[in-house]
Design brief:
single chain, Cytidine Deaminase, domain 2, two-stranded antiparallel sheet, 33% helix, 28% strand, globular
């Protein structure tokens, strides 16, 4: 495991934003993505009777809806031990297969970094 303080400052920022979204909204996951201009989009998981989205897919959708053309990086904070294939695919759709996806524990400790594709 790697402490998030060892990350590049921009990657540490999206982990911190994802962690904050999770805590603030009291949801199982928080996520943040950074687009090609450096803008960030932050989201929590969505659980409604008619709509269920992971935090990462919600953040990607927010980026697309705001006009982002690509993603530089994505982060998700969760109790999970891996990033789902569906979440990686959403990041790859906008960012490409090599876009890094950071998975951090609720305390901000980086668990792993995987390519989107």
């Amino acid at each position: 495991m790697t402490d998030s303080n060892e990350l590049d400052p921009e990657d540490r920022k999206i982990v911190t934003l994802a962690r904050s979204a999770r805590a603030r909204n009291g949801v199982p996951e928080g996520a943040a993505v950074r687009d090609e201009t450096g803008r960030t989009y932050v989201a929590g998981s969505v659980t409604l009777p008619s709509l269920r989205l992971s935090a990462l897919r919600t953040a990607v959708a927010m980026a697309v809806a705001s006009g982002a053309k690509s993603l530089e990086a994505a982060a998700v904070v969760s109790g999970a031990q891996e990033v789902t294939a569906e979440d990686r695919a959403a990041v790859a759709d906008l960012g490409g297969a090599d876009t890094p996806v950071l998975l951090a524990a609720p305390d901000g400790t980086l668990r792993l970094t995987v390519p989107a594709g």
